[in-house]
Design a protein that fits this description.
76 residues, alpha+beta, three-stranded antiparallel β-sheet, 18% helix
């Protein structure tokens, strides 16, 4: 069963959790990127306040995918 992340907006996609103070310059092309609180683990438990959930608008999902695939290829 898929459950929705409570702070997720109507046209948003949850893309993962991150440390609140993490440098996310590589995602600067995504205008709709936002952080949501609280962040949850895969069991639905709240993570420490140092973590945030990341969301992007559905229209920019492909930009996020392109950025992350490019970063993965660079690690090979």
């Amino acid at each position: 069963m898929i459950t929705l992340h409570p702070p997720r907006g109507h046209d948003e996609i949850f893309i993962g959790n991150t440390k609140y103070d993490r440098n996310m310059e590589h995602l600067s092309q995504i205008k709709s990127l936002r952080l949501g609180y609280p962040a949850y683990d895969i069991m639905g438990k709240s993570l420490p306040a140092t973590y945030a959930a990341m969301f992007v608008n559905r229209e920019e999902e492909f930009i996020y995918d392109r950025i992350m695939m490019s970063r993965m290829k660079g690690r090979s």
